[in-house]
Amino acid sequence: MENRVSLGSIQKAVWDGRLPLQIVLASSESRTFDQTDPYLISYPRISYLPSLLPRLRAFFSNFLIEPNSQSHDGWFEFEGVPLKWHYPVGLLFDLYAGADPASKTATRDNESTDHGPPLPWRLIVHFTNWPHDLVRLDADGMVMNDAFINSVKEADFLRNGTAKGIMSLSKEDSSGLWNAVQELDLLSFQRISNILLPRHSQPFRNVPIRIFLPLPLNAESPSLKVVQSPLPPSIPAPSMQSSQMLSSRSGSTLQPQTVGTVLHTLLPNLFPSRRTPVLAKPVLHGAVIPMSAPIEEVVRSSAYGDGWAYLVVRMMG
Amino acid sequence: MQRNAEDKEHLHAGQVPLLPEPGEKDVSTSLPQSSLLFLSSFPISDVFSSIFDLIYSNSGIKGFYSCEIPTLTTPHSQLSICIRRWYGVADSTLPSFSRMAASCSTFPFLAQSEFEVACQDLADRCIAAQNIGWSAIRLLTKNNKMCQCAQPARRAARTLSPGEPRRITGRGSGLQNSSPPKDVSTCPDSSPQEALVRAKPHPSLQIDYDILLSPTYQVPVLYFGLRWHNHGPLGLEEVYQYVVPERYRQELKSVGVMGGISMGYHPGSGAPTFFVHPCNTADAMANIADAQSVTPGSYLLIWLGLVGHCVNLHVPRELFA
Fold this sequence. Notes:
heterodimer, A: alpha+beta, Ubiquitin-like (UB roll), five-stranded mixed beta sheet, 11 helices, B: 321 residues, Yope Regulator, Chain: A, 25% helix, globular
C-alpha cells in the first residue's frame, strides 16, 4: 500500500510523459542528401506529430530541394511506414517502435541493456510526395482539429450514451479543448473535460477503449487491426446469471470490469487468463498496465486528450 | 434533362408514384431539424463484421457526372419523398419486409446482427429490382472482407453464378440494362465463377459508397470516396462541388469544425475516405421512424434515404417494391 496515488497524479504523469524524437529530412528531399542535421526534441506523448511541422519546415528550410513546399505538406515516416497523424505520438511509438515497455518488475536500468529501446525515436519527415494512404492536412489545421473533435465526440457518446455533452459545449470550450491538448495545458483541459465527464459518483455507460493488435512483422500493407466493443464499467460477478446484467444496478451483484476481463473476453486466444498476461501484455503510455486495473479508472486517469485509452497489445518473449 | 424524362416515365410505369404530384409540396423542407444528420462525428477505425458496398458511377444515370454538370441542378426530390412516405403512414402501406418481421431490438440504434440482416435484405432488393441506376452492389462479410475491399478502386462490378455460397455475395445489379456499352471480360486474378463487367473507359467521376455499422454509435455510417477515371482520389472541395447537391451545400458546410462531411480512414481498407457524421443519426431515426414498425431492412432503407441524398446517393424507388 505504499504511495497510493490519486487518479489526478496519474493523469499529471501521463501529460508529463515525453518521448525523445530525432527527426531527419528525407534524403531524397535534401540538398545535402543524408548530411542534413537532425532535429531533436523531447516531445509530449499525448501530442500529435503535425504540430511539429511548422518548426520542422523552418528548421529544414535551407535544405529543401523543393523550396515551395508548405508545412502542411509534411508527413512522417518510420521504417517505411507513413505514420497516421491523427494518433498521438505516444500511441504511434507504442505501436511501431517495438521497444520493450516498462513494467513494474523491470527497473529502468536493466531494461535498457538488452533490448535497448530505440531511443531517441528516429523519424523521417517529408514535405513532398504525400502518400495515398494518409488523409491530407490543410493549411489552417482544420482537418486535424476536426479529427480530434470527432474522436472526442465518440468517447463522449460512449461514456454518456449520447453526444449531447460535446454538442452543447460552447464554441470557446470546444476549441479550447483542442488548444489545451496542443499546448499541454492540463488545467484548461481538466476544466473543459470535467464538463463532459460523468461525475465520479455516476459510472460511465461504456468505457472508451480501443485495443490495437500486434502488427504482423512482414505485413505487406501495415494496416492497423483495432478491436472495439461496448465496454460497460461493471460486469456481473461470476456467480450471477447473465440475465441480471442489465436489470441489476446495485453494486452487490456487479464487479468492476478490469483490463484483464476485457482482454480475456475480446481476445481469448491472446489472453487466456483474466489475471495474468501469458502470451501478450497490454501497453498504455509505454508501460504495461496491470490486468487488475478497473477500466473506468484507467480511462479517467490515463486517457489521451481525446478521451480514449488506446491499449497496444504486445506479444511476450 | 434526360433524367427528368426518365423520372416521368417511371412515374407512369410504377404502381406507386414517388415523385410529388403536380402542385404537391415537397415536404422535405418542412421536416424537423433533427431529421438532418450532419451535426457530428465519426470513428476512424474499427473491426466490423459486415461491409455493404455500393458502387455508384455515372453508368446508370446517363451522364450525370460526366461533363454535363448542369444536370446537377435537377431537383432531387426522390429521397425527400421517401421520407414523406414513411412519415406517419400506416403499417399496411409500408413496403413488405418479408425476411424480417421483427422490429429493431435496440431502436433507434441498430444491432450488429440486425445490420447484417438489413444489408442482406438491401442486397436482395437491389438484385430483385432491375435497372436501379447503381453500377454495382456488393455485400462483404467478415471472412472475405480483406480481399474484397480492394475492389471498389476499380470501376467494376462482379457477378456471381447462382450456386455460390451467400457470404460471397458480390452481385451486379441492373448492369445489363444500364446505358453505356460494356466490355465483359474475365478478371484474370479472380475465381473462375466471377466475371468482371467493365464500362468502356471515358472521363467520368466515380463515387464509391460503403455502408458500415459504427461500433461506437451503433448506427450505419455512409463512407464514400470519389475519383476521376484513371486519376487519383479527390478532395473535400470536389466533394462539395460534385457530390453534394447545391441545396444542401451551405447547410452541410456550416456544422461542426469543418462541415458535416469529415475525412477519416476506411475501417475495412484503412484508406482515406469521406464519411457523413453519424452521431445524430439515432436521434434522426427516432424522429422519423416508428419503433414498433421498423424492421432492420426498413431501418437501413430509411437511413439511406436520410443520409444518402445529401451526398447524391438516391434510393431508387424500385427498392421499395
